[in-house]
Amino acid sequence: MHLVQVLLPLYDNDGRPFEEALYLAVKTGFARRFGGVTAYVRSPAEGAWHGPTGTASHDEIVIFEVMTEQLDRRWWHSMRAELARTFRQEQLVIRTHRIEIL
Question: Which CATH class for the 2-98 domain?
Answer without folding.
Answer: alpha beta
